[in-house]
Structure formats: structure tokens, C-alpha cells
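Q: I'm writing a short explainer about Protein NRT1/ PTR FAMILY 5.10-like for a general audience and would like to include a description of its predicted shape. Could you first generate the structure from this sequence?
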Amino acid sequence: MFFFFSLYLVALAQGGHTPCVQAFGADQFDEEDQKECKAKSSFFNWWYCFSSGGILVPLLVLTYIQENLGWVLGFGIPAVVMCLTLIVFLVGTPTYRFRISKDGRNPFVRISRVFVKAAKNWRATPVVLSVDEEALAILSKKCTQFKFLDKALIAPDGLIEDGKFCSIEDVEDSKSILRLVPIWFTALGYSIVYAQPSTLFTKQATTMDRHFISSFEIPAASLQQYFITVSLIVFIPIYDRVFVPIARAITKKPSGISMLQRIGIGLFLSLVSIAFAALVEEKRLATAIEYGLVDKPNAMIPMSAWWLAPQYVLAGIADVFAMIGLQEFFYEQVPCDLKSIGLAMYLSILGVGSLLSSFLVSFIENATTKHGQDGWFANNLNRAHLDYFYWLLTGLSVVGFAAYIFFAQSYTYRRRSHA
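A: Of course. Here's the predicted structure. Afterward I'll give you a sentence or two in plain language.
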């Protein structure tokens, strides 16, 4: 019970820490300062680079300590490190910047009030009830989407009273939340593909030749970290120091390309990655047939695991664009006092994608194993059809990418506002 309580405590801590720490870090940049605003565009790049690179330390060091010197020391070292980081964090408290809401109102209350007021005034029209016409004109010019929320500004007596009725900023913030929904849904295809390297890609690797240097054999589960993490660590500096300056010189944008363009490139690379995985799996199955290993599930297929490198590397580069782009997008495009909620929305894409991936695997397994047939995910991988599943994910990614392009073209960026 104590052990599982510790695991749940870690999960609870991650739920509070993960979305808030990035938002808090990005809040340390002053958007009104041109130099800091420019530096902020690199924050999410380096954040993801170092957080990904940090995974290599426990892989290379802690794993060895836990297996050879004991789990007490293996858990004790991270515990001591966490205590030290907490001390450093607390010592730095006087230097941090904290966002403060201008009016002190709860953001959830004021945004939910917009939907309630809009619903109550559903049948009302500006012809019947007067409103601040100049303000509505400005609001309509900013965004022609979700105009039904403008009715939240209508007051029963034709006047808008501060504190009692919704403000223009409240309506604009509510619209910005709704505009995120299509992007959230269209990114689910990417998140499903994102779940494969740690699962099915690893299963592929277990059947292949993983001897890279003489007799040294890399564990199948480590391929994900070696290829994806290394590609992240290598490509993020290239993106930040080479790609962005070149793009910045062309587009005149501080970030080089827009957030939606960055996400779109990542979705496309993810699509290419899973398509390549399908082709490699077809090659692996053909090799198993050629060498008569179809009914020998424990035999090593005479095919180097280097064949898997492109799909891993493409997945890593896709993360540089899509993953970091989604982080920045959901941070920037929510109201100032909901930044951590925006990053929580980004994280929920990955969580829901993993659940959808599990659901697809379970559904397809039940559908393809009827009448005693070998399903797509048979224990004997040489009789399975991971290639079919990868092609299915490729199709889903194509649909998601097309839908993303459609919604991204009509997306209206939220105007910058300072808390």
C-alpha cells in the first residue's frame, strides 16, 4: 500500500507540476520588452531540449545503479536531487515574476458567465435591446467566428454594467477558448502516432538484429531513447540557431514561422514517419517469409534494426515541430490567467491519444482474431500485420492533417494582452 501510495503521489505531483512549470517559466519573459519577447520564442525549444536530454541520465546511470547496486540507492539519488532542486527553486523566489489578474476576477467564472449570458439572450437581437454598438463593431472586426457569444454583452435595460454583465474582453477570451477546440481535435491523429514508438516500434525491434558494435546488443526499448532523444537534442539547436534566423529574415516574424505553420510541419512529418514504419514492417515480414522464419517467433530476423532509424528520427524531428509548437500555441492562445490550463489542454492531447491508440488496438485485435485467425497483433509478430495498423494510422493522419489545414487557415490569432 505504501509503494502504490508513492506512485499515485508522483502522478498527482506530475499533474500539478508539468503544466504549471512551463507556464511559469514562460511568464518570466516580459512581452513588452522587445529583447525578452524575442528570447521567449526560444524558451519552449530549449525547455523541451533539456527535458528530453535529461532522460538520458537515468537511462544510462540510474538504470545501472538500480540493477547492480540496489533499488534503495536507485530511488534515493533522485529523492536527494529533488530536495536540492526544491531548495534552489525556493531560494530564487524573490527574483520571479508573477502574473496578477487586473480585476481580480476568477477566469473560470467570468468565461462561464459569457456562455450563460449568451444562452439567456439567445433570442434577443440588438434591434430590440441596445448595446455598446461601437464596442461590438470592434469585437466583430477582430473575430467573425462564434458571433453568438456577442449576445452575452446584451443587458436587459440596454446598458452594460461593469461587474454585473460580461465585458468585451470576457467575450473575446471565451471565443479564444472555443477556437482552440478544432486544433485540439485535429492534433489527436498526431498523438496516436506519438504513442507508437514506445509500444509497437519496440515490438518490431525485438525481432530484428540489434548488434551495432561487434557483440554489443542494444535493448529494444532503448532504441526509442537513443534515436528519438538524440535526434531531438541535435535538431532543436539547429532549428533554433539556423532555421529560425533564416525564416525570420524571410518572414520578419520573431519566431520565424507561425505557431500553426510549425505544428502543421510536425503533423506532416509524423504522417511520413508512420508511413515509413509501415514500409519497413512490410520489408520485415517479407524477410521472415524469405528465410522461413514465419513460424519461429523467437528467431532473429536477419534484418538490421538500423532500418527502424528513419521512422524514429522522423518521429523525433516531428516532435520538434509539433510537440513544441503545440506547447507554445496552447500557452499563447489562452487568456493570460489561464496559461497553465492551456498547457494542460496540450498535455490532454497526448493522454487522449494514448487512450485512443489502446482502444484501436483492442478493437482491431477483437475484430481480426475471430474464427481462430491470427490477428493484426498476434503474439507471433511474423504472422501479425503491424503494417496494416500502420497504414490505418497513416490514413487517420492524412484525414487529421487535412482537417488541420482547413481549420488553421481560418484561425484568428488571439491579440496580445498584458496582465
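A: For your explainer, you could say: Residues 364 and 376 are 7 Å apart (CA to CA).
Q: Perfect, that's easy to follow.
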